Amino acid sequence: MWPFSKIKIFFLDVLSADPTTLLTALTKFLSSRCHHKKWVTETAFRVYAFLQSVDENLLMNEVSAASLVEFSSNEQIQNLVGPENENLDALEKLTGTSITHNGNQFSITASTAQKMKTVRLALEKLYAYAAKSALDPFDVKRLLQESLTTNTDTPRLQPIELSRLKGKRIVPKTKGQDIYLQALEAYPLVFVLGAAGTGKTFLSIAFGLEQLAKGRVKRIILVRPAIEAGEKLGFLPGSLQEKINPYLQPFYDALYSLLPLDVINKKVDTQEIEAAPLAYMRGRTLSDAFIIVDEAQNITHTQMKMLLTRIGEGSRMVITGDPSQIDIARKESSLASATNTLKQINDVATIFLDASNCVRHPLVKKIMDAYREQEQAISKETPLQHSNT
Asked: 342: part of which helix (H) or strand (E)?
């Protein structure tokens, strides 16, 4: 005879299961005890209907309910929990639950069945991602938010994995990034519009390096407009390359974080990697290349048309930009019009990454949200001010 606490845990586990899983489990259990197929089917549906009618809150008492989750891989578990269980501590604070683990078993104690279900789903997602790389508390927060805000009936628990670069496994950390990488795999031309810190440039460079390593392209070409962010730098000393290097530095920052310095320098010397300003693209045909165009919100309509027609045989192009950070006259920016003009072409994909995909310091997302709210408030006030004049 089971004690009440175990019966309660069993019912809460059942109530948190999806209908297909629940019916399958009931049918399997009943079939093991009776070979009358019609009776098994009818009884399974009756028990299922009864369980769905049970108020899960009636199963909760002042002592919190608990649930047990079990995983198999010790390496993934280690990546999941983090040093000194810091990831579990973060998950506990974010959900108001208690999580302990002993070996490959995790025990969740929660005040409501819904909280327990959320934490179980989050643990399963974290465990799946932990197969690719070690996690940190920032990852925990992002994946928990996805568990709460996305459709979890068919979660993509096995994201596209990029090759090991500089001893790391580079994987998408949000659902939006995962969709972005899938688009890079599937389309020869991808536009990605997103806020600061959403991984637009970094992931495209990591993806390009993997394509180069696998021999799918012969070179990576990194393109950026030479536009200052709101201030004029004036005359820059040095050679032409030294003059344009400051504009291309964000590319090098990403490259050096992915591969050792000597490897990058060798690939630059052999022209497997080329970083150049937009002005150098006219008249060229870029074949067998993975082309990354950054800061595209600062590209004019004439420049965009020129750039898009550089794509040669065996090449792919990704164009990234942040429409909220335009440093040229807004009417001259071509990013939005280009995506609208080309949206009917089947070989072109457009991906939008909002602030929820930000993977920089959590403060960055708060800053972006604050500015967005201010801009929305100003846009609402402007018509009123206009009508009073």
From this structure: none
Q: How far apart are CA 291 and CA 277, in angstroms?
A: 12
Chain centroid to CA 212: 23
Q: Does the predicted TM-score (pTM) go above 0.85?
A: no
Q: Which residues are bridge partners to 276 per DSSP?
A: 223
CA dihedral (334, 338, 340, 343) in degrees, to 10, reads: -170
Three-state DSSP class for residue 287: coil
- Contact by Cβ (8 Å): 135, 80: yes
DSSP string for 152-214: -SS---S---PPEETTEE----SHHHHHHHHHHHH-SEEEEEE-TTSSHHHHHHHHHHHHHHT
C-alpha distance from residue 73 to each of 76, 131, 301 (Å) = 5, 9, 52
Distances in whole angstroms, Cα of residue 145 to Cα of each of 101, 174, 361: 22, 10, 16
Tracing tokens 């165009």 back to the chain, one arrives at: 293
Contact 303, 334 (CB under 8 A): yes
Per-residue pLDDT of the chain (389 residues; tens, 9 = 90+): 444 444 444 444 554 555 555 556 666 666 666 666 666 666 666 665 655 554 444 444 433 455 788 898 999 999 899 898 898 988 888 888 889 888 888 888 887 777 788 888 888 888 888 887 788 887 787 677 666 554 443 334 344 556 556 666 777 888 888 888 888 988 899 999 988 888 899 999 999 998 998 899 999 999 988 765 444 545 555 555 555 566 577 788 888 888 888 888 899 899 999 988 888 888 999 999 999 999 999 999 999 999 999 999 999 999 999 988 888 888 889 998 999 899 888 889 899 888 778 877 777 777 877 877 787 777 666 554 444 43
Q: Give CA–CA dist 378/389, Å, rounded.
A: 17
